Amino acid sequence: MDMTRIRDRMVEQHLTRRGIGDRSVIRAMRTVPRERFVDPGYEEFAYEDAPLSIGDGQTISQPFIVALMLEKADLDAGDKVLEVGTGSGYASALISRIAKHVYSVERHERLALQARERFEALGYKNIDVRVGDGSKGWAKAAPFDAIIVSAGAPEVPLALKEQLDLGGRLIIPVGRGDAQRLKRITRVGAEAFEEDDLGGVLFVPLIGEDAWTAVHPMYTAAPSARAEAPPHQLIADAAEEFSSLDERRFAALFDRFAESRIVLLGESTHGTAEFYEARAAISRHLVEHHGFNLIAVEADWPDAAAIDRWTKGQASKGAAPFGRFPEWMWRNIEFSTFAGWMKEQNQRRAALRKDPIRFYGLDLYNMSGSIRSVLDYLESVSPETAAIARERYGCLSPWQSNPATYGRAVLTDAYRSCEDAVLKQCTELLTRSLDDVAPDGDDFLNAAQSARLLTAAERYYRVMYYGGSQAWNLRDTYMADTIERLLDFHGPTAKIIIWAHNSHIGDARYTEMGTARDELNLGQLCRQRFDGMTSLIGLGTHCGEVIAASDWDGEAEKKQVNSSLPQSCERLCHDSGKPRFLLDLNANEELHASLVEQRLQRFIGVIYRPETERLSHYMATSLSRQYDAFLWFDETRALSPLAPQEPGVGDQETFPFGL
Ligand code: SAM
Fold first, then answer.
1. Confidence of residue 404 (pLDDT cuts 50, 70, 90)
2. Is there a contact between 625 and 507 (Cβ–Cβ < 8 Å)?
3. Least buried of 102, 154, 401, 431, by fewest C-beta within 10 Å?
4. Does residue 207 form part of some domain?
5. Which atom of ligand 1 is nearest to the CA of 56?
6. Residue 217's pLDDT is what?
7. Angle CA(150)–CA(155)–CA(159) in degrees, nearest 5?
8. In this structure, are strands 557-561 and 534-548 parallel, antiparallel, or unpaired?
9. Which residues' Cβ are closer than 6 Å to ligand 1?
10. Which residue has a Cα nearest atom 2 of ligand 1?
11. Which among 68, 135, 150, 218 is the best mutation to test ligand 1's pocket, defined by most ligand atoms within 8 Å of the CB?
């Protein structure tokens, strides 16, 4: 890879276009090789504008934020600068290309030593690194013209202010979780300081004597800022309990969402029986009592169209739906029971001359079908490249913490050279599946829309092929577009229920997806496009069993779900002592406020890797902003997958589930 070119492009795309104008900062960003500051295997991602893990629970900061901090520090060639939080050494390296001398303090010895080696290897001689608590500054080397703090403090440490020279600037993130603000403190007199607010940021915490305590480095709250009652107690007080999903009380809990036009129902795994059963019970209630008439799920369009036809009593066409990985997601007893209910409901509606309820797949571009054809093709030309693709797709559906698995999937030349052939296959597949659906006279997906889809498809498949956050964003934007078009098509009285993973439906702006990886999602887009008409409901669990694979395209396995981690949202729900409940996150201000704080949350997708759970499946989230309500099942059962359906005789009778 031509790193200089990629670096220049990053500077152009993420820095200059976003307003970084200081020439010395731009020059330094063009000069310092960020790929030398990331862990081996992650070089390919060095120029994405995102933080990356560097071990010990720490990160190399996002390039844009580093550039912003340096610009706001107004560095000069003669300056003496202190950086607190050396981490990978990247920011100190940049400063060393602008200022005269850099003093850098890091509390993790391994990181400090590694940074020192990197500076030596690159010939950066004007940097001193020390292991210690930087919240106390570096008194012997003071005063400083500028101090950059690369970790979030509860408040501005006094020692750092005192070590500023007259006219000196201190740039520091202050506050906790998503309430963190980047501040600039300028010393304007012996005891006089000016303060500017530079906007919201999200840094790992500054741990030290004049900072946060180290009980749990990432997520310890400031004692002074703690709510009166502990969060698990507030959850216990607000929890609206139920015992069975069949009871009237359970369904009635969702009457509060009757006025919404879009209700999004999540799931924190793709293989938990209770999540399917609960979404079925809620959907039945919303359809029967509150006028919802469309149901759309995280599945391929053509497969969902086959179910839709079947529920309307129309003849089946082609093979049974959901025959591809992850087939258990929709080929399972729980969903087949719900599909049976839709069919009965539509028969009843037909007798009353009412329009049927309609069932749709949000992945208009036939995602799992196209992934399958990519893998088949790559398998035949280069198994090694197919393995990379499999790893990348593992990160696509749904979100999995990068770069733990993603980082290993480094691009090869073979990968690039397969692109065109693969795109051709995907487009052919799409043409075929649109042909399958449209001639039925499907009212929504008419010929003009199919043609439009085909025109946009190439770009879609190209981005999908490489994976990463752009592909994620494209996919979720298409899902939101599909919902918008469905509502338009079915008219102003149409109301839709969505079933998709929590990673799609919980507003990304209040999770690491949005704050650290520039990812957006369906829930966020629905809130933005249908303001006041959208309800986001997350579903979660503490432990139990789940169906998931170990790798993309792998076997469906029954796996044990680890108990949720201490300091996670799930653990708070568990500690409430209530086994099943709905938590209205806007029930009261105190509850809402106490769950705004960033905490870990677990996301298990089609792949579950319990052995690397923290890295692969948890991210920081602000629960009460991410969802409107959270539905809790403390212990859960695995979904009941159905055997694959053999094509051939009997299909018509047993379509679509082989039952
Ligand atoms: N500037 C770094 C870079 O470019 O890679 C990123 C730093 S990372 C976001 C924050 C670093 O601050 C971590 O390496 C962490 O160990 C360190 N840190 C946290 N509290 C500290 C303290 N009191 N003193 C020194 N370092 C600290």
1. very low
2. yes
3. 431
4. yes
5. 16
6. 35
7. 75
8. antiparallel
9. 58-61, 84-85, 87-88, 90-91, 105-108, 111, 133-135, 150-151, 203-204, 206-208, 211
10. 87
11. 150
pLDDT bracket for residue 464 (50, 70, 90)? confident
Copy the structure tokens of residue 504. 């799609």
How many Å separate Cα 30 from the centre of its chain? Answer: 29
Residue 152, helix vs strand vs coil? strand
Whose CA is closest to 219, among 231, 236, 228, 237? Answer: 231
Structural contact between residues 28 and 98, judged by C-beta atoms closer than 8 angstroms: yes
What residues have CB less than 8 Å from 183, skipping those under 6 apart?
156, 170, 171, 172, 173, 174, 195, 196, 197, 198
Domain-located, residue 16: yes
The Å distance, Cα 25 to ligand 1 centre, comes to 21
Q: What residue owns the CA closest to ligand 1's atom 12? A: 85
Which atom of ligand 1 approaches the CA of 83 most closely? 1
395 is a domain residue: no
Alpha carbon of 106 to ligand 1 centroid (Å): 6
Domain hosting 14: range is: 3-221
Active-site option among 61, 268, 368, 624: 61
172-188, pLDDT tens digit by residue? 999 865 578 999 999 99
Q: Are 549 and 394 in contact (CB under 8 A)?
A: no
Quick check: is 61 catalytic? yes
- Atom in ligand 1 nearest the alpha carbon of residue 108: 16
CA-nearest residue, atom 19 of ligand 1: 206
Q: What is the CATH number of the domain that holds 209?
A: 3.40.50.150
What tens digit of pLDDT does each residue of 86-102 get? Answer: 999 999 999 999 999 99
408 pLDDT higher than 50: no
Query: Token pair of 177, please?
Result: 């979780």
pLDDT at 368 exceeding the cut of 70: yes
What's the mean pLDDT in 154-158? 93
Residue 611 confidence (pLDDT): 82
Nearest by Cα to 336 from 395, 280, 405 = 280
Query: pLDDT confidence of 420, banded at 50, 70, 90?
Result: confident
Question: Ligand 1 centroid to 147 CA: how many Å?
Answer: 13
> Quick check: helix, strand or coil at residue 397?
coil
CA triple 219-224-227, angle to 5 deg: 75
Dihedral pair phi/psi, residue 651, rounded to 5°: -50, -45
Q: Which two tokens stand for residue 304?
A: 């969902």
Domain assignment of residue 532, yes or no: no
**Residue type at 51 in one-letter notation:** P
DSSP letter at 298?
Answer: E
At 260-306, the pLDDT tens digits run 999 999 999 999 999 999 999 999 999 999 999 999 999 988 889 88
Beta-carbon contacts of 186 under 8 Å, excluding residues fewer than 6 positions away, are: 167, 168, 169, 170, 193, 194, 195, 196
- As for how many domains the chain has, the answer is 1
Q: Which tokens sit at 341? A: 């209910």
HSE-up (13 A, CA, CB side) for residue 164:
28
pLDDT over 90 for what percent of the chain?
A: 57
Q: Mean per-residue pLDDT for 557-564? A: 96
Question: Do the Cβ atoms of 300 and 356 come closer than 8 Å?
Answer: no
Check: pTM over 0.90? Answer yes or no.
no
Q: Whose CA is nearest to atom 14 of ligand 1?
A: 87
What is the per-residue DSSP string for 576-637?
TT-SEEEEETTS-HHHHHHTTS-EEEE---SB--GGGHHHHHEEEE-HHHH-SEEEEEEEEP
Best CA proximity match to 269, nearest among 393, 406, 397: 397
Report how far residue 111's alpha carbon sits from residue 89's, in angstroms, rounded to the nearest whole number. Answer: 8
